[in-house]
Amino acid sequence: MKAKNPSNIIQKSKTEEIKSLASKIVSSKKHCNSVVKIFEFLLEENCSIELHLACIRAIHKIFCFYLEQNDVQHISTQGKSDSPELKLREWLRERYIQSVDVLLGQMQHEDSAVKELALCTLMKFLASEGIKPMDGRSKVSFPMGLFENIVSSLLNSVDEEEELINRFQEYLEYDDVRYNYMKRLMYIITSIQESSSEVSEVQISNLLSGMLILTSPSGSEKLSNFLVASSAGSSLVSSVKVHREMFSKVWLAFVKIKLTSKMYKKILVSLPDKIIPHLQDPLVVSDWLISCYDRGGALSLMSLNGLFVLMNKYNLEYPDFYNRLYNIMDNEVFFVKYKARFFHMLDLFLQSLLLPTTTIAAFIKKLSRMALTAPPHGILLILELVTNLLVRHDTCRTLVHRDTSCSFDTDPYIPDESDINKCNAVDSSLWEIKSLQKHWHHQIASQALRIEKPLPHIETPFVDVLEVGYDELMGKEVKKSKKDKAKEANGQVNVPITHVQRTKLFSFDDADLETLWITNEV
C-alpha cells in the first residue's frame, strides 16, 4: 500500500480548519477573531495553491455575509463610541478593508486560479457595497473607490494579465460596470499621455488587452442591465448614445499612445469586427488606418481589411487606394503569416466590374511578374487568381491573345512605375505565365497551360490554395508516391503509352556484347 504524503495530509487538515473557522465566524460574532488566523494562513510563505483558494473562499463567505448584515458599514456613533457593539463593528470594518487589500494583492499571484478567484470575490464585494454603501449613507451608488482599485490592479500589473482580463470581460455585460470601466480607462490613458516618464511595454500591453474586451451596446432602447441597481437612476449610465460616445473617445485616445508593432497588429486584427461596428462614427479611425497602410510591410497588409470595411460599408473615399495597394505587392507576402488574408482581400478589392481595364491589367501583370520568382505554393495561388481575374474582367483577355511576341527585354510593361495608369500593363502580354508552362513542378505547368485554353464562364474558388505551403505540396507528392508503390507491389504498374519497359540494359543479346568487347579490345 502506497504511503500518504505527510505534506498533503497537513495541507488537507489546514483546509478543513479554514472551512470550519469560516462557518464558525458566520454563525457567531464571538469567533470573529479567527479572521486574523485565516489572513495568517493566506500570507504564509509556503502557502499552497489549495490553501490559497480555501482562504479566499473563506474571506468571500465571511465578508459577503457581514456586508449583507450591514455589520461592516460605517454608522454615526453619536457619543456611543465606547459601546462594545460599535468597537466590534469598527474592528470588522478594518478587517474588511484589510481583506480587500489582501485580495488585490492576490490578483498578482502567479497561479491563474488564485487570481481569478480573488477577482470574482472582489466583484462580489462590489455588488454588495452597491446595495449597502460602506459610508452608511441611505442613498446607494456605484462603489467607485473599490472599482478603481480593482481595475488598477488588473491593468497595472508588472506581468501580462491577458487571461485574467478576459475573465473580467464577463462583468462588462453589466451596463454600469462597462460605463465606469470606460471612464477609468480614459483616466489611465490620459495619465499615460500626460506622464513625463516612460510607461512600461507590459503596462501598455495590459491596457490594450483591457481595451479589446470592450463592447458597445446597440439599439436605441434605454439600458437596464446593472450590477448595482441604483445605476438605473443615472441618465448617463443608461444611455446607449453615451456608451457609444465613450467607446469612440477611449479608442481614439488609446491609438495616440506610442505602441509597438505587435500592438498595432493586435488592433488591426480586431478592428473590423470588434471595434469599427461599435464606434459612433466609424470614419474617425480612417486617418489612423491610412497611416498604418502607409507604413508598409505587414501593417499595410493587415490594415487592408479595416479599409475595405470602411470603403464598402461606410463610403470612405480613398482615391489613391489602388495605387498604394499595387505598390505594396511583392514576393515577401508569400512568407508572412497573413498571406492568405492578403490575397483574400486582394480578390475582394478587384471584384467590381466598374474598375478600369488599365487597373485590372496592372494587377494581373504585377502578379504574373511576381510568379517568376515566387515559391511553388505562391505560383499556384497566383495562377488561380489571375485566371479568375481574366474570367471576371474579359476586357483583359487581350493580355493572353496578343499576337506580338514579347519577352523580358521587349516587354513594354514598366515594373518600377508606381502609377498603375502609366506602367503600360495593358499593352503587354502574359509571357510570364507561358514560361511557367515548362516549370519543373507538374501541377504548376498544367495550371499554366489552362490560360491558353478556353476560359470557363464561372470563376474557380481558390480558397483551397490560400493556405497551401511547402508542407502541403510535399505531403501531396509523398502520398502520390506511396500510392504508386502500392500499385507496383500489386502488379498494377501505370506505364506511359509511348514507353516500352526495358528488361535489360542493351537491346542486343549478351553474345553480341561479348563479340563487341573482344573486337574493341583487339
Secondary-structure map:
Elements (H helix, E strand, L loop, with lengths): L5 H22 L6 H9 L6 H20 L15 H23 L5 H20 L12 H12 L6 H7 L6 H20 L6 H12 L27 H15 L6 H15 L10 H9 L2 H17 L7 H7 L11 H11 L7 H15 L4 H17 L5 H4 L29 H5 L6 H8 L13 H4 L3 H20 L20 H12 L1
Helix pairs in contact: 1-2, 1-3, 2-3, 3-5, 4-5, 5-7, 8-10, 11-13, 12-13, 13-15, 16-17, 17-20
How would you characterize this protein structure?
The chain has a domain at 1-75 and 83-140. The chain has helices at 6-27, 34-42, 49-68, 84-106, 112-131, 144-155, 162-168, 175-194, 201-212, 240-254, 261-275, 286-294, 297-313, 321-327, 339-349, 357-371, 376-392, 398-401, 431-435, 442-449, 463-466, 470-489, 510-521. It is elongated, with a radius of gyration of 36 Å. The chain is an all-alpha fold and 522 residues long.
Distance between the termini: 91 Å
The biggest sheet, with number of strands, parallel, antiparallel or mixed sense and barrel status, is:
none
Poorly predicted ranges (pLDDT <50, ≥5 residues)? none
- E-strand count: 0
* Beta strand %: under 5%
Shape assignment:
elongated
What structural class results from the helix and strand content?
mainly alpha
Mean of the pLDDT scores?
84
H-E string = HHHHHHHHHHHHHHHHHHHHHHH
Multimer state: single chain
Q: Measured on Cα atoms, how large is the radius of gyration? A: 36 Å
Number of helices: 23
Helix content: 55-70%
